[in-house]
Amino acid sequence: MDNKPIYVTMPSLAPLEEFNEILKGVWDRGILTHNGPLVQQFEKDLCKKLDVPHFVAVTNGTIAIQMAIKALELKGEIITTPFTWIATVSAIMWEGCTPVFCDIDPGTLNIDPSKIEALITDKTVAILPVHVFGNPCDVDAIKAIADKHGLKVIYDAAHAIGSSYKGKSMLAYGDISATSLHATKLLNTAEGGGCITNDSALAEKLKRIRFFGHNDVKDIVEDGFNGKMTEVHAALGIANLKYYDEVLADRKEKYRIYKNLLSKNNSLAFQTHCVGEPNYSYFPVIFDSEKILIKVEEKLNQNNIYPRRYFYPSVNTYTKIIDYKTCPVSEEISRRILCLPLYWKLKINCIEKVVLIINNTIF
Ligand code: T4K
User: 216 CA to middle of ligand 1, Å?
Assistant: First the structure.
């Protein structure tokens, strides 16, 4: 094994020649952006691959969440999870809404549906859960609550390309799903994201919002902004999409290998998968205490291995920008959870090395 650093993830990249081949067309046409042919092709290819009716490609996953909130014209309180990346919450706040934190289920690490209703007030307008690490939320329970109270549902599906429930992509659930195509995601366009909806009118509105609010004749008909994906990013997406099935299968196999090797260690806990089929895009492991986590992380770092503390700290504790409200489960798990290296080209002997270091450090 060479001594190159092993990071929590590495982008899944098609061979450079294949990307270059697609780029030649961009150079020939000289069309770099403004809903060019590659963006349109990428959206079409994604719709086919994921079996969703509308995929509106945008600049990143954070903008995708903001656009979803804007398109649904939400103003008020949005119930969300504290166990997430800051982007979920900053998108809510940038749209002038107030995040209301609902604690998580300690097993699935997703929002706990049984705790949502107690947080609904006359100002609540939507629920915005996250399919954490690609683990499908209990979408039926969440829909039942939303329907009962007349609320919209936006899924932060940043991690969820490749996850499914009842044979449908997780991106097909909710009024709108917002996903990320960032370099660290299972499918990437370097930076990128998308809004997915089953509603044709909403998809058209999202496209107008993405393009300054223009309609077909460049009249301004929406309060829009610039969320356009470029042709270069779409070219990368098209090149990488060819390897999507292989990447997905590889993640599942490597997840299985990690789980098998680590299951012998009784002091570790794992995310539970209760609903649907996850995409196994991350390998989170929960330690007995933060002290043990720090010890393991230090040992891994000494061996040039760099896991990440996703998500730490729990977002409700960012008191410089948010009014603190206690979410004990999320705060407790955040302190004890570490995502181990997991990516397409990761070698199996690296997984074995990570496991050996963890076991040797704990025992
Ligand atoms: N909602 C949720 C639940 C999210 O997790 C995120 C983003 C969003 C919304 C918003 O989506 P975007 O607006 O980002 O599309 C990463 C990503 O920046 C972020 O996309 C992601 N979630 C978050 C969980 O993680 P960092 O701070 O971990 O990135 P960084 O630079 O430390 O990268 C981690 C490892 O990946 C590095 O050690 C090496 C490797 N890497 C990274 C990059 C950027 C590469 O090999 N190549 C690269 O280009 O944030």
Answer: 35
Distance from residue 182's CA to the centre of ligand 1 (Å): 7
Centre of ligand 1 to C-alpha 8, Å, is: 10
Give the model confidence (pLDDT) of 100-130 as tens digits.
999 999 999 999 999 999 999 999 999 999 9
Backbone angles phi, psi at 263, to 5 degrees: -65, -20
Supply the residue whose CA is at minimum distance from atom 16 of ligand 1: 184
For the chain, how long is the longest CA-to-CA vector?
A: 68
The DSSP annotation for 282-316 comes to: -EEEE-S-HHHHHHHHHHHHHTTEE-B-TT-S-GG
CB 241 within 8 A of CB 187: yes
Percent of the chain with pLDDT over 90: 97
Cβ(8) – ligand 1 distance below 6 Å = yes
Mutate to test the pocket of ligand 1, among 13, 85, 339 (most ligand atoms within 8 A of CB): 85
If you write DSSP's letter for every residue of 254-271 in order, what string do you get? HHHHHHHHHTT-TT-EE-
Residue 40 has what DSSP assignment?
H
Beta strand ranges found along 59-122 (DSSP E)? 77-80, 98-101
Amino acid at 87: A
> What is the structure's pLDDT at 1?
58
Q: Is the CB of 87 under 6 A from ligand 1?
A: yes
pLDDT value, residue 2: 66
Set out the domains of the chain in order of their start, with CATH numbers: 16-241 (3.40.640.10), 244-362 (3.90.1150.10)
DSSP secondary structure letter of residue 291: H
Tokens of 263: 């299951």
The catalytic residue among 48, 115, 168, 185 is: 185
- Flag whether pLDDT at 301 surpasses 80: yes
Q: Mean of the per-residue pLDDT values for the chain? A: 97
Residue 185 among the catalytic residues: yes
Contact in structure between 227 and 209 (CB atoms under 8 Å): yes
